[in-house]
């Protein structure tokens, strides 16, 4: 191949032109396409949208035709987990491919340290045009990875997404990190989202079915629909430019919905994310495969022909995109650290089983969204005080809490029934304990002895006195410098495989 190009093009031309063509020939010989032929990547990250709050995931109330169309044209994942149900730590995990306690920024509103690897920077160095629009929430470190940064426009931050696509340099492949503010409180209503009738909605069983909660849900769904509108505009613009078929579109959320027992929690309602990938060669199907947000970074790098960085803890799922059925991972791990309220919980899922360990069982597990600050939380507290709530709605009031929880998500999808004490589950419980212990040890996790205290009270007010951060998870082990991923496949746990896993 090189000899052919050399004889045909290099000999008749000058040295400079010949040198350029030589580089081109070498690139071809190595199996690398010119930059313009590289696939484009568009990563769309929703804010506070629960996995079950998308039409294609079974929600019969919300209208998301454009997101649904992505799922019908691509691969829809039913078991994708973020690393934490907390905005900034979750986004830091996505961009680094690392667990929160390994990023050095495991708590809410902590900026990502400068020494952390971020995968868009590698794309930029490889010739990609990179842009971030909308919610950053990761700090100044990420600026070095993007040619263009925008705070976003409009109430949901999506208004400039199409313009960014139009303004991009046309001779380069592109990577866009499009991060909406939808659907984050406080609600903002406009003409881009659907207006829902509160009386026509189905109320999730963890929420009190009352007038204020229904209005709250209607406004939340409005913002979900607004994001869907802009997803459609992005797809239309890619199509208009003739680049849709060479573009991977990834849709996901950073954590669960902003309602009691969802956001911050380690149940599926908190850490399970809608996840859709549409792109060149991606099969049109649905998969039950376990996946994590830290797997995005190595997958994107593999898609564009770059090597996985040594600091990434995730694994590539590119094989799944190509229709292969090989096991990517047998375990997912998630964590709950400080998010306005103190917390230290760890979760592992394998097969149909979810095991949660609570380091502070003496404390109520709280989030701002489950306090009295917002309508659904306020109504829940009022009805609880009146003795009108049901058992499925009373989790936030439970003090003390179990130090261990075990659920079979196939039989109990909302994780309402803790079966950790059932004798028949002892074997699977022991197995998941070992898996979690192994992950904690290998990734350098640790329960803080002097943790960051609560900042607010249950009314949503700032507590008196000067607030300050405490010890972070993993600090004593310098976890931000540890690259081991913990168990990924069953062989990584040195214990007999349970029969009913």
TrEMBL record:
Cross-referenced Pfam families: Sulfatase
Any GO MF annotation of the entry: metal ion binding
Top-level taxonomic group: Bacteria
Domain Sulfatase N-terminal residues, every copy: 39-143, 160-305
Basic and acidic residues bias spans: 444-460, 468-478, 491-501
Coiled coil stretches, renumbered: none
Disordered: region residues: 443-501
Membership in a protein family: Belongs to the sulfatase family.
PANTHER family, sorted: ARYLSULFATASE FAMILY MEMBER (PTHR42693), ENDO-4-O-SULFATASE (PTHR42693:SF53)
Protein name: Arylsulfatase A-like enzyme
Originating organism: Sphingobacterium paludis
